[in-house]
């Protein structure tokens, strides 16, 4: 079906093609089928762009780019898969936890795990004997299904659970120390609630073609290129490693000796740090420096945050529209003193006191972490920076718009799935070719997911009551889990069709502030069920789709996700408690050190105080930040005009097409997306995004189909491997930082883009 959110390339940009493809099966040694080759692509050197069909709809990349090839005879649960899956899960969970407490904003990526797994799996297949009883350890070449199991396990374990971060915040700032077993069960249960929801939503957000998860196309394309044989894939593998090596050799230059290349701004180079206005508007090279207007980057580590090679053109265009609005709104609101923040810094997520200093949140709480009105009268209310308040408001606009957007554009799909409880059935009438190939495998019964969901809620409620007094009452856990279920449907549609993720953190915390007024601990703990559950659902849905694309048996995918979650929960907690116990004072310090920082954990604590202890004083009608809460309801109206225009305008007219092209949730969120971290990369994303998803897709369709997503995988993989090495070699992840000597491209008294004095 054709859906307006799917990111179709506008028809006026497309050229017709009548080329057809014929598939042929190649047999390799030992009778194993190696590859299903598209004859029109087998001799890739003779393909011309005029002979290749242009991909019109964004979701069609899953059919045109990815092979539906499957080899049911391949071994799946092998020694290699279990050994490497367990080892990389433990390694990823430990490393991701360490990164959580580092000043650098880093993570363990799925592509990093994929590449390491491929190297180690291929090595094991080469060195372990395969004859006699050894065949149980080495059943043959390292295959795509083993590889996918390892990737799913490792990426699941490497996704740091919000529960771990909340447990660390309770330990650090409220001296609430959960029993080790209770903490591990709490982490696991919060993840499994999301997994249960994901399983229930499979027929809606996994099986159909429109649910294609754009950011996963490059992952699957790389897996297929590494494991399927034939002349074309040999060329793709060679191309991948060349691009991988090139970015590996390049990326260390802008990241270490020449950081000016991470954010090149002609305006900043001319100003050289003299004007604060120039810094606020054009600066983007350092954290919280500015919003990066006309700033370009050559660092793929930053550029890839905009997914310019994989996000559909519609997603990117709407995000750029949102940013354009943000440049104006953020700047004007700050200089017009909106939210009374003109005397504060331009960008910051911290809480400030009346005199502009850091807010002393501990001074307004009683010993049992409740609001003390007498102390509040003495200290006064906290303030947000203007840009941070605007950003929170835009995120809430986006959430409201997302709910109505999905209801308007996807009502038919929702009705089909839930109208007669069709989602409870294991058999579905879906014409997606990848789904059709999966029908040969035994599906996971729906009751498995429902049972997992119910048991996990029970475990979560039990864990909440283990401290003597409930962190939050049982009814609140159920309430926010139900809310999260409905949010997961809306967010899942947006993620599955655009690749875009919408944050619900602020909205959930504001809602919790009204339900648990004056209770900061409860507001923070609600994140496990209102925020974490929705995001765990999205992660699980993506991995279920990955299993469908690679033809991994569904029950194997289920087992891999369960195993990754169990290993991740254990190592998340063990590493977290070790770091917290040994670096307590540093992690509580607002600044931290070059080696350790509690900035991620502190954000939960700050939100719990501002929204939990002071929700009534700050967010009710007539109070300083009431619009942040009511923005959700205002956002409900955003998609309606565009849907009405599309619905009642002449079918096929330009105005109807433009109305369908507008995605208000993305625009609203990106209007407030900039007041965070580094912003020097976005204009490079614009150039690369249009070059890939418009020019190459329209005028070089042969190259686009064969190499666009593989290029993305190679660039991501190479840059992430070198960043991993640099993190431990020179950036302080090994407790010893080695700064590069100062020079013009790495200034001592200026930010890296030479736009701000470092003592500003």
From TrEMBL:
Keywords of the record, alphabetical order, are: Membrane, Peptide transport, Protein transport, Transmembrane, Transmembrane helix, Transport
Q: Identify its membrane topology class.
A: Multi-pass membrane protein
Transmembrane stretches in the record are 77-99, 111-129, 149-174, 181-205, 211-232, 239-256, 317-337, 389-411, 447-468, 474-496, 558-580, 625-646, 658-675, 721-744
Domain of life, per UniProt, equals Eukaryota
In its UniProt record, a GO molecular function of this protein is:
oligopeptide transmembrane transporter activity
The question of whether Nucleus is a record keyword is answered with no
Looking up InterPro entries in the UniProt record yields: Oligpept_transpt (IPR004648), OPT (IPR004813)
The record's comment on protein family reads:
Belongs to the oligopeptide OPT transporter family.
**Protein known as:** OPT family small oligopeptide transporter
Source organism: Fibroporia radiculosa
